[in-house]
Amino acid sequence: MKDALDISICDAVEARRxxxxxxxxxxxxIPTLNPPGLNxxxxxxxxAERLAKSGFKVEMIRAEGxxxxxxxxxxxxxxxxxxxxxxxxxxxxNGHHDVVxxxxxxxxxxxxxxxxxxxxYGRGACDMKGGLAASVxxxxxxxxxxxxFKGSIEISATADEESGGFGGVAYLAQQGYFDHVDHxxxxxxxxxxxxxxxxxGVWWAELExxxxxxxxxxxxxxxxAVRHMGAVLEEMERTLFPLLATKHTEMPVIPDGAxxxxxxxxxxxxxxxxxxxxxxxxPAPCVPDRCRIVLDRRFLIEEDIGDVKAEVTTLMERVKxxxxxxxYEIRDLFEVQPSMTDxxxxxxxxxxxxxxxxxxxxxxxxxSPGTYDQKHIDRxxxxxxxxxxxxxxxxxxxxxxxxxxxxxMADSAKVMALTLRELLGP
Length: 426
Hints:
Structural class: alpha/beta
CATH class of the largest domain: Alpha Beta
Radius of gyration: 24 Å
Low-confidence stretches: none
Helix content: 25-40%
Number of helices: 10
Strand order of the largest sheet: 1-2-6-3-7-15
EC number: 3.5.1.18
Distance between the termini: 18 Å
CATH superfamily of the largest domain: Zn peptidases
Number of strands: 16
Strand content: 15-25%
Largest sheet: 6 strands, mixed
Protein name: Probable succinyl-diaminopimelate desuccinylase
CATH architecture of the largest domain: 3-Layer(aba) Sandwich
Shape: elongated
Number of domains: 2
Organism: Actibacterium atlanticum
Mean pLDDT: 97
């Protein structure tokens, strides 16, 4: 049940509804494509100017030396801080500003920020510029309604979440930006009535089979690495995929298919490199001496990363035992341990109370099938009191005609604003 102050805070959010829609649309119109990392400084400058006008002290931070940071594509982030009337706890909203490639199949301009039928459309609308806009409005509305609050509010807009977060939250955590923070909310699109406690683990690896080059008219003089890889893929279908289907978790992962271990063959490359699109000639007749696949293995909190890797090594050794001259190499690319915040953590309980007030229902507790920046706040920042909560339908992320609902943004902003009220007073 909302009291008079809760109602005042929610009214302050509603009064900013049009501003929230305009902010979301403006963010979408800055095409922060990753890779390679376009317009990062532009989006940070836009938000810095906006938040400075609202009284925040803003810091622009380049993740120098981080993966993918370069003179051509610098990895820019902002951290904005608003100090209350008295000392107290710090609540930090973290949103990533990068978006994935556009892809095909759009019926609207991917970077038009079009508003229609109660939705804002565009690449990143759902994942997660709608959530970023909602968190800004939540903070501004709360400050307006409760200027004498205790503690501080922080809003960060960070780079490269879509490619691991190393130029964004990981860098900030390494630099100590979360050392003083007490509560973190990441407004990822997990539905406005759900609290996301964490995510599965991930191991990315590159697996290469090796052969010997020869003339394509005399393949018997060479050793085809692509055929070797075919045997590997066949063995995966025969033994590894059925094994993964037997592994299930007690984590509340959504959707149901992600409650088991999964493996995606991300890409395959073998033989002669592809030529430029304007090349009109034929390929050279060669036996491929290299073939590579990239593995995207998602694992459960009940699994050990050493066992996950051993499954693939054991499989490769089985294939090697059956194929003369078979050679291979496995290279680790990226790994993240599963993360899950306790349901009785302060930020979980507070957001749950706010959801009950705004939506008049108890929240659902879920775990994300894929990782997001909670991994760095947990592992590097050593802060367990972190969740994902924000507007948007998860299934729309990375899809054509991506959108976020305006009512969902407003409701989520009210939840975040009431969370601030409970954690920071007055």
